[in-house]
Design a protein that fits this description.
Number of domains: 2
CATH class of the largest domain: Alpha Beta
Helix content: 25-40%
Shape: elongated
CATH architecture of the largest domain: 3-Layer(aba) Sandwich
Distance between the termini: 38 Å
Organism: Brevundimonas naejangsanensis
Order of helices and strands: EHEHEHEHHEHHEHHEEHHHHEHHEEH
Number of strands: 11
Radius of gyration: 25 Å
CATH superfamily of the largest domain: Crotonobetainyl-coa:carnitine coa-transferase, domain 1
GO molecular function: CoA-transferase activity
Number of helices: 16
Strand order of the largest sheet: 3-2-1-4-5-6
InterPro entries: CoA-transferase_III_domain, CoA-Trfase_fam_III, CoA-Trfase_III_dom3_sf, CoA-Trfase_III_dom_1_sf
Strand content: 5-15%
Protein name: CoA transferase
CATH topology of the largest domain: Rossmann fold
Pfam families: CoA_transf_3
Length: 387
């Protein structure tokens, strides 16, 4: 699919957003709002711009093309009095301000949220930081990996006999950005009732903590500390990545009825009534040996052969995809999960579409990322400020 039609304005059409962040957390929040139709004006340091412009793999990094889509670039020196005044003027016209600097930075630049909201009472200020705007750690520098470690994620990711691992993507940053976006949407709803904006305080470590399931009560009530268990979820079996003759395949058959269907597919229907495997608790107690039985069977099959059997027997399962698999998969194509965005340097750039999908007012990629720092300065100052 090519670039989504600009006529699809999205549910946030008409909202104005000023993004003052850089790298991932603030800009991803801006991407989410822009994807849903908001007009996002990104303030960048003249000449230098956001370091994210240079992040990613390949001779021409492409990450910028995703995280900066649907945005306008305005060059502003926030360390100068003139630049600060320009920022204040733009923010006075905005519905939402996004920033992900260390707490106190806005205040140092004479852009304290209290002052900005005094001039624009309807303003919603999304502040994304490592540790939040308050507390003894608030002034510390914080990146996504640090938030993942403090929030509990890193301690449980990886193999048990190795050091804590990472997710493979900057999950702490994107979680904090997503919660910041969700907070902004909630604040917009509250503004409908009160007429006033507010501050949304989204920290990296708390955003990670929010998705840690029952980690805290398991320890507080039962004294259980979750540890690294690799690809296995303890006591949930069979549910693992299993080796095939030509690759790897994930199977999740831990429910009794599903496990019985898996046993039939394996040609071992008797396993479903075996006392060691007949119930969820029993399978959990015999997880290692059960995983061994399943692995011995999957090794005799190629991935496609195994997938055909899992579909035939209605067992939740799936390939472990990489980017090449995604771009070749018919389901991705049918749902237009990947679109192609025109780029003056690279031609067409495939990237993920806008999610989630709204039936009546879908979001869209309406414009590609700005390739030049400040390329939209004149247009935005004219349209927003009449300058």
């Amino acid at each position: 699919m090519t670039l989504t039609s600009p006529s699809l304005n999205g549910p946030l059409d008409g909202l104005k957003v000023v993004e003052m962040g850089q790298l991932i957390a603030g800009p991803f929040c801006g991407q989410l709002l822009g994807d849903m139709g908001a007009e996002v004006v990104k303030l960048e340091a003249p000449g230098v711009g956001d370091p994210m412009r240079h992040w990613g793999q390949g001779e021409v990094p492409t990450w910028w093309r995703v995280i900066a889509r649907n945005k306008f670039s305005v060059a502003v020196d926030l360390r100068s009095a003139e630049g600060q005044q320009t920022a204040r003027d733009l923010i006075a016209q905005a519905d939402i301000l996004i920033e992900n600097f260390r707490p106190g930075t806005l205040e140092k630049w004479n852009l304290a949220p209290a002052d900005l909201m005094a001039a624009n009472p309807r303003l919603i200020v999304v502040r994304v930081s490592g540790y939040g705007q308050t507390g003894p750690y608030s002034s510390r520098a914080g990146f996504g990996g640090i938030g993942e470690a403090m929030g509990g994620w890193r301690a449980i990711v990886g193999e048990p006999d190795r050091a804590p691992s990472r997710m493979g993507v900057s999950i702490g940053d994107t979680l904090a950005a997503t919660y910041g976006c969700m907070g902004a949407l909630a604040a917009l709803q509250a503004r409908e009732r009160t007429g006033r904006g507010q501050v949304v305080d989204s920290s990296l470590y708390e955003s990670v903590l929010q998705v840690m399931e029952s980690l805290i009560p398991e320890y507080a009530i039962n004294g259980h500390k979750r540890t690294r268990t690799g690809s296995v979820l303890p006591k949930i079996a069979p549910s693992n990545v299993y080796p095939c003759a030509d690759g790897e395949y994930l199977i999740g058959a831990n429910q009794d009825a599903v496990f019985a269907r898996l046993c039939t597919a394996m040609g071992r229907p008797e396993l479903a009534s075996d006392a060691r495997y007949a119930t969820h608790l029993a399978r959990g107690d015999h997880q290692t040996e059960l995983d061994g039985l399943v692995s011995d069977w999957t090794r005799t099959l190629k991935v496609q052969e195994l997938e055909n059997l899992m579909i035939e027997h209605a067992v939740p399962a799936g390939r472990v995809y990489d980017a090449e698999d995604m771009m070749a998969d018919p389901h991705f194509a049918a749902r237009e999960a990947i679109i192609s965005v025109p780029d003056p340097v690279l031609g067409e750039v495939p990237m993920q579409n806008v999610f989630p999908r709204l039936s009546d007012t879908p979001g869209a990629v309406r414009r590609p990322a700005p390739l030049e720092v400040g390329q939209d300065t004149a247009e935005i100052l004219s349209r927003w400020l009449g300058a």
